[in-house]
Amino acid sequence: MHTLSAFELNKKFLSGEVTAQAIAEHFLQRIKKYNDELGCFLAVFDNEVLQQAKALDEKKAKGEPLGKLAGVPIAIKDNIQFEGHKTTCGSKFLEDYVAPYTASCVSHLISEDALIMGKTNLDEFAMGSSSEHSAYFPVKNPWDLKRAPGGSSGGSAAAVAARLVPIALGSDTGGSIRQPASFTGTFGYKPTYGRVSRYGLVAFGSSFDVIGPFTNSAQDTSMVMEVLGRPCPHDGTSYQELPEPYLDHIDNSLQGKKIGVPWDFIESMEGESLQLFKQGLEVLKKLGCEIIDCKLPLLKHSIPVYYILSTAEASTNLARFDGIRYGTRSKEAQTLDEIYDLSKRDGFGAEVRQRIMLGTFVLSSEHQEVFYRKAQRVRTLIINEYKDAFKECDIIATPTAPNPAFELDSIKDPLKMYLQDLYTIGANLAGLPAISVPCGHFDGKLPCGIQFFGKQGDDAKILQFAHQFESEQTFEPSIPSRYA
Amino acid sequence: MNQYEAYELVIGLEVHVQLNTRTKLFSSAPNRFGDEPNMNIGIVDTGQPGALPVINKEAVNKAIMFGKAIDAEIPLYSRFDRKSYFYPDSPRNFQITQFDHPIVIGGKVVADVEGKSKTFQIHHAHLEDDAGMLKHFNSFAGIDYNRAGAPLIEIVSEPCMHSPKDASAYAMAVRAIMQYIGASECNMEEGQMRMDVNVSVRKKGETTFRPKAEIKNMNSFTFMEWAIEAEFVRQVQEYEKNPDKPFEEVIEQATLRFDIEKKKTVKMRSKEQAADYRYFPEPDIPPVVLTKEYIDEIGKNLPELPHERYSRYVEQLELGEYNASLLVNDKRLSDYFEEALKECDNGKAVCNWVTVEFVGRIKETGTHIADFGIPPQYIGELVTLIDKKTITGKIAKSVADDMVQHPNKSPSDIVKENPDYQPMSDTSAIEPLIDQVLSENPGSIEDYKNGKDKAYNYLVGQVMKLTRGKASPDVVKDLLSKKLG
Amino acid sequence: MYSFTDDDIDRLSKLARIQITQDGKERLRGNLEKVVRYVEQLSEVPTENVPLCVHVNDKNQSVFRADEVEHDLTREAFLANAPDQVGGMIKTPPVIKFE
């Protein structure tokens, strides 16, 4: 059952071939069996899910109308609020914090009868590219348990790759959905900024953060995006119109479409990474696409721009975690000042503290012009550069990650870790929709992803490209053998 | 010339007004005062993780109304910024305010300062959210977030005031405008209006500005005047004591509060040196983009403004500047007066009866006339009774006393029910009383015949006494004159 | 080339209200310097007259809310996560008044 896509599961449930309870039990058992070794889930909602599944079966038996995601098990990254359940953000600071409300995107899923299975592990407050920085335990890559699954949405990526759930939500601020998707051989989609409501997503970089799904097929991505992309009045930066019916568009041909590749930018790539990327381009050619060169000379500055702006925003977004209204208040603290100074010292990990300090630095009055405002201006230039590039091509393709999944504990230098996001960050800077699609294996073993970017609002087009690419060629094995 | 006369005051005001929208600025929680702690809170106001601010349209509308009322520019593009500082009453440890691009730019306020009309320039006005309330106890503090997120409009003037009276008049005029456009009641006791006063001094004739001190959180016009006066004295003394020091070393740009007991400004214990607020554009709120049509529509529908009402009172109703100011500066009083005027159009008389006679009578209760329970129409009715000569002015005073005792009784009913109030116009009843007085006061008749007018008035008074005020003075005078020849 | 002194770290620590331990300080300083020197490359990019990218979303629509009350948090739910409370309020050690 776990090798079925969400689309297929839903169909089998609707046809009566399988009950919601059977689905729930099957996946709950798999989670129980494998979570210890993978570290995907921080919380699993066994009883609740079984009850919901039962109720869903009853609803079906009565002939009541069923939601678009009826019977589909979905996991949620633990930086997304789900009322009555803990939202830890992978941090000690929030280890006892219980969500007082539900994020809009999760409400949408529930309204369509999805089964919310549990909360997945992540780098603390979504800051990281390996999921090693969770305060609880690291996540392992199902393709090689000695390797990282990528981050920060590693728990969701690994859960979907190991088929513990067919769909899991992640968040992407600099590549936190796409890079782990590349490392785990899954489809990781970052929608256009504003397409999915951020209400209920614990903010990291407000102008970068996007919620998106991990799946094992583009059709599943499209199916869940039709629900996730619904409007919500609680997010002023989100689209207020309904999303397009993505499933209706994915079968259209790509004949004659132009793919822009910024060869200048990826020239530093070599060896197998480059080879696998070119292999992906061949598939696109077979689909009738034309590969053209596109110039994005400013992209090389995208990492500095991102780290200045996202940490600046994060330093203020995380200021609310002071131990006054919720969260862990340092036991040592006797005075108010001590509550402020010690709660974060004790509750936040080193990477989070460091980014807050960096963000505070770039916003401080003496430095704001040179760092924060400068980065804001370069961001404008980068956005304009993309707009110009899209005048010549339908989508832009690049590799997703500069390397395959690395070994746990192997990257200590923060700068080296930041460079993991080299190819993904551009989409966050410009608010573009982007997806990582499996396109082969390193040495036949570790998965590799290819990335498609579109203009803002071109979500339907990106999903179409992903589906066509997948339909043309699947790269086996698509499931790590241990979890097949 | 004493040392003070060589200096002039330079004052700028930052007035914070709480708008009276139903909900808060960025959330749908109720915008209400006085309830139990933490009953009017929401996800956004308590800074829950994942919360997002969404602008209350009504707050924007009220800000535009204010801008139109002061003839300011309303830019088509404005936006919000984050202002970072750590304090327990702040749910996010940053305030959302407008630093670079406020919603109201420029503008002017006309106010009456001790009889003279003055125009004060405004620099800008912007929207921002309020913080919660900290309650201090001996061994702990309690925080109530009911007020967190309440919509504030901050009005920043140019440093164009030069006396405590200027400052009060300006602040009262701003309050009046807010009340008239229905944006806020500006109830000072409930903290709906607070003033931060920037005070500096300079030698008369100087054109540059010297360092200023900021006196924070004033919520009384009188205390604000005292504070300004005290600060003026302090600063002048400092300059006089240190004639050779550079100005920045003489007066520290500090934050002060006013100690009401000592009648002095006192430096506030600062928690951090020169706070670095790290302002940057708020990424969660798209810019406010307005159209000229939208702004003009709001401007067209403004209700009567204080200065328009003032002109009407002075020019049409001929109330005089003092009374016009008195009424205009208290909108509830003025509205009450307007209602009374619907009954009787004798503006001057109605004004006197409302603002002097009745307000005077209920002063000790501490209740506003609009809350006392006497329908304004009744006062209008009373004046009509006097004008129609149904009762005398003197009787009317007694009737007013009764109206205060029985607020739901109309004056007509009161007069009908009390025989003593029935006017005596029957000359046959009055004549014998005149005869009595004349016979008892031969000396006065003598004085009168010798040209002493006072004697005449005395005789009239005596007759009025006998009639217990019920006779019309005109009728008495008429008959008396006839009898005296 | 940017460098951080001990004072710089202290000042940042005060602004951000995070206490940095002594041994943490060295590591933090090293990392901050490395990152800041890396991002300094932005100074090469010409940006005269380029506006700040204030909002990413192309749509430039103002999203407003009607002035209607909606309750989304009860006092009970709010205080359920409070580290300390008293009389319906959040409780903290005494706060030095601004006086």
Uncertain regions spanning at least 5 consecutive residues of chain C: none
- Count of DSSP E strands of chain C? 3
The sequence of SSEs of chain C as H and E is HHEHEE
How large, in whole angstroms, is the Cα Rg of chain C? 23 Å
CATH top-level class of the domain at 6-44 in chain C: Mainly Alpha
Uncertain segments of chain B are none
Using the alpha-carbon principal axes, give the shape of chain C. flat
Biggest sheet record of chain C? 2 strands, antiparallel
CATH architecture of the domain at 6-44 in chain C: Orthogonal Bundle
Number of strands of chain B: 17
Radius of gyration of chain B from the CA trace? 30 Å
Mean pLDDT of chain B: 90
What can be said about the biggest beta sheet of chain B?
Answer: 9 strands, mixed
Terminal CA distance of chain B reads: 65 Å
Largest interface: A-C, 73 and 54 residues
Key terms:
heterotrimer; A: 484 residues; alpha/beta; Amidase signature (AS) enzymes; 16 helices; globular; B: 485 residues; alpha+beta; Arc Repressor Mutant, subunit A; nine-stranded mixed sheet; three-stranded antiparallel sheet; 17 helices; 17 strands; 19% strand; elongated
Please give the structural blueprint:
The complex is a heterotrimer of chains A (484), B (485) and C (99).
Chain A: H1 6-15, H2 20-38, E1 41-44, H3 46-61, E2 73-77, H4 104-111, E3 115-120, H5 154-161, E4 167-172, H6 178-184, E5 187-190, E6 210-215, H7 218-228, H8 246-249, E7 258-261, H9 271-286, E8 290-293, H10 302-317, H11 336-347, H12 350-363, H13 369-392, E9 395-399, H14 414-418, H15 425-430, E10 434-442, E11 446-453, H16 459-472
Parallel strand pairs in A: 2-3, 2-4, 7-8, 7-9
Antiparallel strand pairs in A: 1-3, 4-6, 5-6, 5-10, 9-11, 10-11
Helix pairs in contact in A: 2-3, 7-16, 10-12, 10-13
Chain B: E1 7-18, E2 55-56, H1 57-69, E3 77-78, E4 81-84, E5 94-97, E6 104-105, E7 108-113, E8 116-129, E9 133-136, E10 141-144, E11 151-157, H2 164-180, E12 193-203, E13 213-218, H3 221-241, H4 247-250, E14 255-259, E15 264-267, E16 280-281, E17 288-289, H5 292-300, H6 306-316, H7 321-328, H8 331-343, H9 347-362, H10 369-372, H11 376-387, H12 393-405, H13 411-417, H14 427-440, H15 442-449, H16 453-466, H17 473-484
Parallel strand pairs in B: 13-14
Antiparallel strand pairs in B: 1-11, 1-12, 3-17, 4-5, 4-16, 6-8, 7-8, 8-11, 9-10, 12-13, 14-15
Chain C: H1 6-16, H2 22-39, E1 64-65, H3 75-80, E2 85-86, E3 89-92
Antiparallel strand pairs in C: 2-3
